[in-house]
UniProtKB/TrEMBL annotation:
Keywords: Peroxisome. Its main location: other. It is found in: Peroxisome. This is AMP-dependent synthetase/ligase domain-containing protein. One of its GO terms (molecular function) is CoA-ligase activity. GO terms for cellular component: peroxisome. It comes from the Eukaryota. The keyword Nucleotide-binding does not apply. Residues 45-164 form the AMP-dependent synthetase/ligase domain.
Length: 177
């Protein structure tokens, strides 16, 4: 891998982008409370893993997660297509791919206001389910609360990956394989 440079995004640009993506997902039927499975390569080890084991794990996640929508990169799309009938819609992260909705088309859409969730107990309200690797059996779903997600963001912020607004920037390195 070779690092090709940095892309710097301000908080206001990131917030605008989030509102544009919110509009795109909303226009394609995603609503509050819908489950979305994210089938993306995590790291180099995942990319080079046996496609058979990746496909097996993906099948387990799809069946266990009971998601209505799927967001996939091109590397994992083949593993998801076999389960297409389980989803209302499949979104792809890059380019156009066989009639699936490309989220890159969401950039430039009119912004949609983000809604407050208004949950009473954020420490207990489910925000996401992350799956373990399953090295000692089937993968297991680990429930992440909204509170734990925000706490993780705050921990990263405290580690100086982000600086406080208004000068705050998020840095993203472009990596070429």
């Amino acid at each position: 891998m070779q690092i090709e440079g940095e892309k710097i995004t301000s908080y206001s640009d990131l917030a605008k982008l989030l509102r544009q993506y919110a509009r795109g997902f909303y226009e394609h039927g995603v609503r509050a409370g819908d489950r979305i499975i994210i089938a993306r390569s995590k790291d180099d080890a995942y990319v080079f893993a046996s496609r058979r084991s990746v496909k097996g794990e993906m099948t387990y996640h799809i069946e266990d997660g009971q998601a209505s929508f799927c967001l996939s990169d091109n590397d994992n799309l083949a593993s998801v297509i076999d389960h297409q009938s389980r989803f209302k819609k499949i979104f792809v992260t890059t380019g156009e791919s066989g009639g699936f909705v490309s989220v890159s088309s969401f950039k430039g859409l009119p912004e949609r206001a983000l809604e407050e969730l208004g949950e009473a107990d954020t420490k207990k309200t489910l925000g996401a389910i992350a799956y373990t690797s399953g090295t000692t059996g089937d993968p297991k779903g680990v429930m992440l609360s909204q509170y734990s997600f925000v706490a993780a963001v705050q921990a990263i912020k405290c580690a100086h990956h982000f600086s406080a607004p208004p000068t705050g920037m998020i840095r993203d390195r472009k990596i070429r394989e």
